[in-house]
Each structure stands twice: as structure tokens, then as C-alpha cells.
Design brief:
The complex is a heterodimer of chains A (about 350) and B (about 260). Chain A is mainly α and about 350 residues long. Chain A has 15 helices and no strands. Classes of the chains: A mainly alpha (about 350), B alpha/beta (about 260).
């Protein structure tokens, strides 16, 4: 009897290596910026703030510890969250092409955020309001896209696009009637960016996002089973309706949290899980951690480009789109079967 | 082992897909469900595994009432082999088979050592261990059907239900599947299978039920109940039954006109 090799050493090695790359990216990104601080000096400041040495209260210290560190960490968490939620939606909807952006979650969440900017008397915080509308749009996209018990790709994507543009139109109305301060805040959501992030943001959202990612990861085996088909999953003992609601809620929660802190950042949730799947395969037990790590790396790199390429700030959503669109074109031209699905 | 009493199912009030279906399947029995297309075979299976709620009737495995059992518990008792199809993601064969362990998983994290062992054994029993590291989506239809069979085996259930497992396969793979099913019944598993070819019923099944328009026409030993009268009722006068030694054959009439 041949023994089947069930060891996952290679996959674990890939994940470990990318985790190391993520760590290096974080450190390098903290050392790089418009205000030039030598790398060694940056590292010294970083170490002193972590308890290895005495903290000098200089301008350099403020730039490194109060501006760059929270910003880079937040970028990492947001990239992780968007990529993880993308991988989750792709598994739940059984389609390698859906993402928070395409399902209209991002636009819905941005609308929720804009709503609470425009009408501060609404008794929800920006985060809660964007979560509610994020949830609303994903469930609307799913139920509108459902035809006779099935959810074909075309109708799902179309209803996502319809909802997305509907919510975008509502946001545009807000922009039209907003006063200057509100307008500034709303435009921020649409472009996406991390320039305002400080330690206080990191303490709330920065803690919730990793918790959400880990919570999803705990369901990754069941997500595998779910992704092969509803009926098969049920015959394998998975309560599909319950699992779908749990996973969609978690994925929407972390997307909305990310959107409410950094605005709409497109492409990460579509592109990163896809790239991760090419590297490590479709098994969500490994795909989700790798997506999270690659998402973190990608967003940190994009944000570092944003804050260094010109003297001012380039909105983050623009960089991710400029890098993301060619990747999607490459997929469209070279891997058509990905678009039309391997199966039915 | 499995007993179904007076099962009635319909998607709406006025029309019933299944009417008063009753049958008994014993331990280690290879039980065939035979009938023309659209006669309710798949619907019957879906009622048994809990996808569809019947209007009336009961389904028991020994003393366990299946109709009031949650999805997780049914999957420990019955495994289901659907007709093979391609999933959207290229999972490896060994991981597809490992999915059969899902109903037995304790924690939420995923399969453990014991599950890996069971899946690995199932791959060997079906004889597809050489495919273990290939993407499931790259396999041929016959290979995929064998992999699904291995998955059902790793589920370790007393009853296995297969929906037309041989209909998309070439002759060699059909024979292979039937031999494997025979082997499984010798291990004490009750196998329920829907088939289109009356000869397969005659040659391989211990007992069969003939289903037509949602009703059971006859149940019993295939060589007893699969008569020319029944076949005429099902299909019109298109076939004859011939005997060769102990074996019975259903052959088309036109050849001998």
C-alpha cells in the first residue's frame, strides 16, 4: 500500500518566508520617507522606542514613532483585511473573480461613512454605519444575483456593479450638497489614504482587523468544503447557510473597518488572493494566511510609493489601481479560464 | 438498516414528485434504484440525505429518525456521491478526499493526524493513490468519479448513496466502479445506487426498486422482478430478455427483427 504524502512542509515554508519578507518590508518602509532619516538612525529610534535604549524627543523620533510606525502598521492590517475578505468572498461565492470592490461592499461602506459624515446626529459611529451599508450591499448583490437557486457569475457581478454605482451616485449627491469640511472628508473616502493615521486609530481598528482575519482563518477548512458546492458541502455535514452568513459577516466586517479607516482601496481583495492561489494553491488553510501576508506587503509598498514619489501625497486608491489593472489585464489575456471558471 | 415508509414529496401543493415510496435496504446490501429519466430517483436521494423535506412519511436508519437530524449528524451516517463535476478551484485529489472527514472533525481548525490516515487509506482502497497530488480539475470524468467514491469512503458511513455513478464513464471504468461497490458491501456498507442500464441491475445488485413516475412499481431480487412486462411498462416494447447460462440479459428488440 502506497502511503499518500499529506505533509504540508512546502506550503508552511512558503508562508514562513513571506512572513519574513513582510517583516523586512515593515522595517524598510519605516526607514523610508520624504523626510530623509538615515536607515541606521531610523533603526536606532525604532529600537529605543521598543525599550532597547532611551528615547530622545527629537523631530526624527516624532516622524518615525508617531507618524511612520502607526501608518505602516495600519497599512499592513488593512492590506491583510482586504486580501483576506477577498479570499473569503471568492470561496463563499465559489468564484475566483469576486472581491469586496466588485460586490459593491466598498461603495456601500463608503456610503455609510459619508452618511454619518453628512448627518452627525445619526446615532452610529462612522465604522458602524459603514459596516451596516457594507452588509446591506453584499446581501443585496447576492439576492439580486440569485436566479432559480443559483448565483451565476454574470448576474452576481452585474448586480454588484449596479449597487456599487448606485451607492457611488448617492455619495456624489452628498458631495454636491456638502460644506467644505464635509466635502474634504468624503473625498478622502473615495480616494483612500493612510496619511492621517495615528496611534489612536491603531488601538481600535488595528486590533479588530487581525482578530477578524484570524476568526476567518479558523473556518478555512469548512470554507474549502463550502467552495466545492452547496449540496456536496451539506452531504459532508456542513451547515452551509449558517457558515455562509458567518463568513460573509466577518469578511464584510473587516472590509468595512478597513474602508472606514482608509477609504476605498480597490484591487487588493481581488488581485492578492488570486496571486496567492497561483503560488500556494486553493486550500484556504494556507491561502488565507498567505493572502493576508501578501496583502500586507502589497499595501505597505503601495503606501510607501504614495508618500515618497512626489513631495505631496498620492491617494492610495490610485496606486493600487494603477498596479492592479495591468495584473487583471494579464489574467484576462493569459488565463481566460480563470474568468470563465474552471467548472460550471 | 435503512427503512423508508410512505414517503411523499412535492415542490408545490398539488403535484407530487414522489408518492408513497417505501423501501428497505439491509446491511451490506447493494441496492439499485432503477427507472427512466425524470422519475424521481435524485429527488428520493435528496430526501434521504436531508436536502429536501418530504411532505409525509418517515426515514429511519435502525432506530434513528433521519428527518429530525441536523446536517452534521446525517453526514456521519450517510455519504453521498454526486455525479462528477468540476469545482471552480483546483483542489488536489488528496484534499478532496480529506474533505470526507469533515463530519468527524472535532475542532474548527481542520483535519488532524487520524483524518489524514483515514483519507490516505480510502485513496488506497479505491486504487487512486497515484492521483493524490494531481489537481482534481485536471482529471478525466472516470477518475473524478473514483475520487468522489474515495471521499465517500473516508467519510466512514454505514450507508453510501451514489447518483448514477457510471453514466458518464467508459466501459472499463463502469466495470471498475461496480467491482469497487461490490467490495464495499462486503465490508458491511449498504450501497444505494441509481442506474440506467437494466443489465447492470441484473448482474450486480442484490435487490432493486423500480421507480416510475414517482411510484414504486416493484421491489425485490432483480432477476425476479425485472421482467419483460415491467420493462414494457417502463419503456414500451423495445427490449427482450435473453438468458445465457445463469445470466440474464436485456437486449434491444430491433436487432432481431
Amino acid at each position: 500500500m502506497i502511503k499518500v504524502d499529506y505533509s504540508y512542509r512546502k506550503k508552511i515554508t512558503i508562508i514562513s518566508i513571506s512572513a519574513i519578507i513582510l517583516f523586512i518590508t515593515v522595517i524598510l518602509s519605516i526607514c523610508i520617507g520624504a523626510y530623509n532619516i538615515p536607515i541606521l538612525k531610523s533603526l536606532m529610534i525604532l529600537l529605543s522606542n521598543l525599550g532597547f535604549g532611551t528615547v530622545e524627543h527629537t523631530v526624527q523620533n516624532t516622524i518615525i514613532w508617531d507618524i511612520r510606525v502607526p501608518r505602516v502598521l495600519m497599512g499592513m492590517f488593512i492590506g491583510m483585511a482586504l486580501a483576506t475578505s477577498g479570499a473569503t468572498y471568492q470561496g463563499v461565492f465559489r468564484n475566483p473573480l469576486v472581491s469586496p470592490f466588485i460586490l459593491g461592499v466598498s461603495s456601500g461602506a463608503a456610503f455609510g461613512a459619508a452618511l454619518s459624515i453628512m448627518f452627525p446626529f445619526i446615532p452610529f459611529s462612522i465604522q458602524v454605519s459603514s459596516f451596516i451599508f457594507g452588509m446591506l450591499s453584499v446581501f443585496m448583490a447576492y439576492s439580486l444575483g440569485r436566479v432559480r437557486g443559483k448565483t451565476p457569475l454574470v448576474t452576481l457581478l452585474l448586480s454588484g456593479i449596479i449597487l456599487g454605482s448606485f451607492f457611488s451616485a448617492l455619495v456624489a449627491i452628498f458631495q454636491y450638497i456638502a460644506n467644505e469640511a464635509q466635502l474634504k472628508a468624503i473625498v478622502f473616502w473615495l480616494m483612500g489614504g493612510l496619511y492621517h493615521i495615528g496611534w489612536s486609530d491603531l488601538l481600535t481598528v488595528g486590533i479588530l482587523l487581525p482578530i477578524g482575519v484570524v476568526a476567518i482563518w479558523r473556518y478555512s477548512w469548512r470554507l474549502n468544503v463550502l467552495s466545492i458546492g452547496d449540496e456536496e458541502a451539506r452531504s459532508l455535514g456542513v451547515n452551509t447557510e449558517k457558515l455562509k452568513i458567518i463568513l460573509i459577516s466577518l469578511a464584510t466586517l473587516i472590509t468595512s473597518l478597513a474602508v472606514s479607516s482608509a477609504g476605498i482601496i480597490g484591487w487588493v481583495g481581488l488581485m492578492i488572493p488570486h496571486a496567492a492561489r497561483l503560488i500556494i494553491g486553493p486550500d484556504n488553510r494556507f491561502l488565507i494566511p498567505l493572502s493576508a501576508i501578501l496583502g500586507g506587503i502589497f499595501l505597505i509598498v503601495c503606501d510607501t510609493i504614495c508618500r515618497t514619489i512626489t513631495t505631496g501625497e498620492v491617494p492610495l486608491g490610485i496606486t493600487t489601481s494603477i498596479l492592479g489593472a495591468p495584473y487583471l489585464l494579464y489574467l484576462l489575456r493569459s488565463k481566460r479560464n480563470v474568468f470563465f471558471g474552471g467548472g460550471d | 438498516m435503512l427503512s423508508i415508509e410512505n414517503l411523499q414529496f412535492g415542490y408545490d401543493k398539488n403535484y407530487n414528485v414522489l408518492e408513497n415510496v417505501s423501501l428497505n435496504v439491509g446491511k451490506g446490501e447493494l441496492f439499485g434504484i432503477f427507472g427512466p429519466n425524470g422519475t424521481g430517483k435524485s429527488t428520493l436521494f435528496k430526501c434521504i440525505i436531508g436536502f429536501l423535506k418530504p411532505k409525509k412519511g418517515s426515514i429511519y436508519i435502525n432506530d434513528t429518525d433521519l428527518l429530525n437530524l441536523p446536517t452534521e449528524e446525517i453526514a456521519k451516517l450517510i455519504s453521498y456521491v454526486p455525479q462528477e463535476h468540476k469545482p471552480p478551484f483546483p483542489y488536489l485529489v488528496k484534499d478532496i478526499v480529506l474533505m470526507g472527514r469533515t463530519p468527524h472533525l472535532g475542532g474548527v481548525f481542520g483535519p488532524g493526524e487520524n483524518d489524514l490516515k483515514k483519507a490516505s487509506e480510502a485513496l488506497s482502497t479505491i486504487g487512486v493513490e497515484h492521483l493524490a497530488n494531481r489537481p482534481y480539475t485536471d482529471l478525466s470524468g472516470g477518475q473524478r468519479q473514483l475520487v468522489l467514491l474515495a471521499r465517500a469512503l473516508s467519510q466512514e458511513t454505514k450507508i453510501m448513496i451514489l447518483d448514477e455513478p457510471t453514466s458518464a464513464l467508459d466501459f472499463k471504468n463502469q466495470v471498475k466502479i461496480w467491482n469497487i461497490l461490490k467490495k464495499l458491501t462486503q465490508k458491511g456498507i449498504s450501497v444505494i445506487v441509481s442506474v440506467h442500464d437494466p443489465n447492470h441491475m441484473l448482474w450486480y445488485c442484490d435487490n432493486i426498486a423500480i421507480l416510475n413516475k414517482g411510484k414504486i412499481l416493484a421491489t425485490g431480487k432483480p432477476e425476479k422482478i425485472l421482467t419483460e412486462n415491467i420493462l414494457n411498462e417502463l419503456y414500451g416494447e423495445i427490449c427482450d430478455i435473453k438468458e445465457y447460462g445463469d445470466l440474464k440479459f436485456v437486449i434491444p428488440k430491433i436487432i432481431f427483427d
